């Protein structure tokens, strides 16, 4: 045992010495060192296509941090925001580029556009580097290109539609399942208006084959079906205020809903201007939902249908910063006919770079549930419980995740090797 402890202490001291003795990269005048912080994009492709800068794994030794974020557009495409943040000798020299990738762009076209804009944004920081002598700028247009934007005739008037269907199945000798899904989406987004409609439908069947005492096989089938409809109409009032309404509909065998339909006029306030959503946002939304519920079975409150009013408050915050990001959401609501029928949901996600070598990730959610009005009075069978075929009474739900990441060694990662 003493020998094992000595070996462990020796390895620990050696690693500590290696880490502590690894000094910051020596910044030189040959080229630029860049820390790439790519949120939801192909960072490997970017590094492999740009070979005239040094991409480093350590933010503290970089001269420029490149933060890339994406957001969906009204036409089904993606908006990319590239923020070049000057560090070290480039401190306070920042730059921002924004481009739109349309819905029809393939993944190859999208990532090639991203690489092009990354290159354009880096030029400003390469002016004092030796590598500038080996770079060239080319123009792909023609002499008669007009700088002013021409009017575009859109036969769809800004509307975008999506229709999809899928099926999956699996099984073995004694059991199996199959599932069908369909969806429809329509949306139109302008500077003042946002209109969106989403519809999803799913059917799932699980079957089990059993052999009785006479050796005969019998098959038991257990099915669930669900349909969801969501619609939104929102009108921008200013940089901080938005008004609108949403509709919500559902059919669910699991939740004992023959038909649920409601509409909720709402008002939203944004602490920061909506234009800053890519980096920071805090919003408060309040609405009153008028809802009609028709149940498949009589509920535990002896109801087969009822009309309800429910007030809802949604608070959401989302920060994307060079050191990481924070996302949080609080949703609270209660039925006006009985304030004790209420619910509260809290979600939090944090990813943070504590130091040049240590990163921390944590997420969690908690729900307090006191508003399950649709629970069937018929009770639950063992199959309903084990296969989650029907809603079960509960007063809370929770979940979480935590992770740590420790990096050390060479800070350079320019080489991309896809072999094996």
Overview of the structural elements:
The protein is mainly beta and 420 residues long. It folds into 2 domains: 27-134, Sandwich (Immunoglobulin-like), CATH 2.60.40; 159-406, Porin (Beta Barrel). The protein contains 4 helices and 17 strands. The longest helix is centred in the N-terminal third of the chain and has 20 residues, at 2-21. The model is unreliable at 16-26 (pLDDT under 50).
Q: Number of domains in the coordinates?
A: 2
List low-confidence stretches: 16-26
Structural class designation: mainly beta
- Shape category: globular
Task: Outline the biggest β-sheet.
Answer: 12 strands, antiparallel
Q: Assign the CATH topology of the largest domain.
A: Porin
CATH top level class name of the largest domain:
Mainly Beta
Number of helices: 4
Task: Give the integer mean of the pLDDT values.
Answer: 84
Spatial order of the strands forming the largest sheet? 6-7-8-9-10-11-12-13-14-15-16-17
Helix content: 10-25%
Estimated radius of gyration: 28 Å
**Assembly state (oligomeric):** single chain
Q: Hey, roughly how much beta strand do the residues contain?
A: over 45%
Report the end-to-end length measured between terminal Cα atoms: 40 Å
Strand-and-helix sequence, N→C? HEHEEEEHEEEEEEEEEEEHE
CATH architecture of the largest domain: Beta Barrel
Per DSSP E runs of 2 or more residues, the count of β-strands stands at: 17
């Amino acid at each position: 045992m003493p020998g094992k402890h000595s070996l462990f202490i020796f390895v620990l001291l050696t690693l500590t010495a290696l880490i502590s003795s690894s000094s910051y990269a020596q910044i030189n005048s040959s080229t630029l060192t860049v820390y790439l912080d790519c949120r939801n994009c192909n960072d490997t492709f970017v590094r492999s296509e740009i070979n005239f800068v040094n991409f480093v794994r350590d933010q503290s030794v970089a001269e420029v941090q490149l933060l890339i974020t994406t957001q969906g557009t009204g036409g089904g495409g993606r908006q990319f925001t590239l923020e070049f943040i000057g560090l070290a000798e480039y401190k306070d020299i920042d730059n921002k580029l924004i481009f739109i990738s349309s819905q029809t762009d393939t993944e190859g076209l999208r990532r090639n556009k991203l690489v092009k804009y990354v290159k354009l944004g880096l030029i400003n920081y390469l002016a004092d580097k030796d590598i500038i002598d080996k770079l060239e700028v080319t123009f792909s247009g023609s002499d008669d290109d007009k700088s002013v934007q021409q009017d575009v005739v859109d036969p769809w008037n800004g509307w975008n539609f999506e229709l999809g269907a899928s099926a999956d199945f699996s099984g073995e000798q004694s059991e199996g399942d199959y599932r069908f899904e369909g969806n429809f989406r329509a949306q139109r987004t302008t500077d003042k208006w946002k209109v969106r409609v989403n519809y999803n439908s799913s059917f799932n069947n699980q079957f089990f084959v059993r052999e009785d005492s006479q050796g005969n096989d019998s098959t038991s089938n257990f099915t669930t079906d669900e349909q969801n409809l969501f619609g939104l109409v929102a009108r921008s009032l200013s940089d901080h205020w938005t008004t609108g309404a949403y509709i919500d509909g559902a059919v669910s065998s699991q939740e004992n809903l023959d038909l649920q339909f409601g509409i909720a006029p709402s008002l939203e306030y944004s602490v920061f201007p909506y234009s800053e959503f890519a980096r920071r946002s805090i919003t408060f939304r309040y609405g009153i939902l008028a809802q009609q519920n028709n149940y498949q079975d009589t509920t535990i409150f002896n109801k087969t249908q009822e009309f309800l009013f429910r007030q809802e408050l949604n608070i959401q915050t989302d920060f994307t910063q060079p050191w990481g990001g924070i996302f949080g959401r609080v949703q609270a609501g209660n039925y006006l006919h009985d304030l004790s029928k209420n619910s509260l949901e809290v979600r939090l996600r944090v990813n943070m770079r504590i130091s040049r070598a240590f990163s921390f990730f944590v997420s969690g959610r908690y729900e307090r549930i006191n508003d399950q009005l649709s629970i069937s009075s018929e009770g639950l069978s063992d199959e309903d419980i084990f296969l989650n075929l029907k809603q079960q009474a509960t007063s809370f739900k929770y979940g979480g995740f935590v992770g740590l990441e420790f990096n050390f060694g060479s800070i350079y990662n320019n080489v991309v090797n896809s072999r094996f």
